[in-house]
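Hi C.,

You asked whether I'd gotten around to modeling the 256-residue construct. I have! Everything is below, sequence then structure, no commentary in between.
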Amino acid sequence: MDFIKHFILHIILAITFAVLAFYFPIKKTERKIISPRKFKKISPKYRKWDVFFMVIMVTFLVICTYLLTETFLYIYKITDTHHDAIFNILTARLAWYFPFTLVSMAIYVRLSFQISRFFLRNDFEEYMDYSTQTTYGIDNESLIKPLIWVCLSLSFIGLLWMYDYRSFIYNDYLEYNELSTIGKNKKYVFSDIKKIEFERYYSDEKLLENYKISFADSNYWNIHGGLFYDKNEVIIAQYLSQKSKVKIDTLKIRND
């Protein structure tokens, strides 16, 4: 059932992104090349508009990203919490903001010229000619669709990876999925656990703590993956130690 649910979700995401990318096709235009004298004359006027539109963009991205992410998280926590699991270790809130920031960027790029036209009205065409000059002759309107595709493609990949990056610990076994894989849950019974190590190490001059679970097949799982909701590493490690009858090793310090 999980596979079917994930497959359907991925198809829905792909269709949604494709529709967003092709929503209201963009008509390519050819902009005038403004003379250096005219460009110098109108630049002070439109630089102020550049700042104004930058403020609008940042405001839009913050609000849209927040709404999209929090809406998704509400559904994600309800649908992906396994009530029969002792521990549900789901992907952390902050991690989801990355792909949805890209989605918000794609939406804003698609709406940016309508926003500019609304505020500039009769000055819109001249402003676009000015903008083309500031980008070394590249027509900004022709960049919309490629930018949308880049943003949506990266966000789609991020959503696929992070959606499967979660772990569940049940009464009789545990399963987890690494960030580098999609749809490949690894399942182990507690007797497969051969070693539990508590590590303290430096990463980018920041001291981190982690519990490393080693299994009989030489595979291992770092409980502290950096993207999880729960910060109950100690409780989880103690539970696994109790169930597997494997004592947690004493402090291990390593340098990365």
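If it helps when you're writing up: The mean pLDDT is 80.

Thanks,
B.
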